[in-house]
Amino acid sequence: MNLESIYSEEITWAVIGDILNKEKYAYKILKNFENKGYNVVGVTPYDEIDGEMKELKDIDLNIEGVNLCVSPSKGYENLFNDTNHKIKYVIAQPGARSEKIKELCKDRGIEYIEACTLVTLIKKNRI
C-alpha cells in the first residue's frame, strides 16, 4: 500500500515526538494534520513537559496510525507498552527508524513504513 492511500483513509493518527517545539518535525506534522482536518493527537514522551500526553497507551481515542518523530528507543517504548490500540500503520520518519521497531510491528501485524510524511503529503497537496 502506498502512503497517499494510507493518508486518505479516515483513521485517527498519533504523532509521537517533540510536539511543542515549533522547530521540530513532530510539531510541523501535527499542525499540518490538524490544519487539514485529520483526526490526530500529539504525544510527547519527554518527562520535562507537563500537561501533555507522555505515552501512546494513555490516549483514549482509537489510534490506528502512528507517526514516529522521536528517537528509536522512545518510539519502541511507546509502541511496545501500548496494547490499547489496534494500530494498522507506523510511519517512521528519518531518525526515528530501527530494526527493533520494524520487528515489533511485524510481530504485531502492523504495516511499518519508512518515509517522510511532510514530503509525501505536500506532494499530494494534503498538507
UniProtKB/TrEMBL annotation:
<dbReference type="InterPro" id="IPR036291">
    <property type="entry name" value="NAD(P)-bd_dom_sf"/>
</dbReference>
<protein>
    <recommendedName>
        <fullName>CoA-binding domain-containing protein</fullName>
    </recommendedName>
</protein>
<dbReference type="InterPro" id="IPR003781">
    <property type="entry name" value="CoA-bd"/>
</dbReference>
<dbReference type="Pfam" id="PF13380">
    <property type="entry name" value="CoA_binding_2"/>
</dbReference>
<feature type="domain" description="CoA-binding">
    <location>
        <begin position="12"/>
        <end position="120"/>
    </location>
</feature>
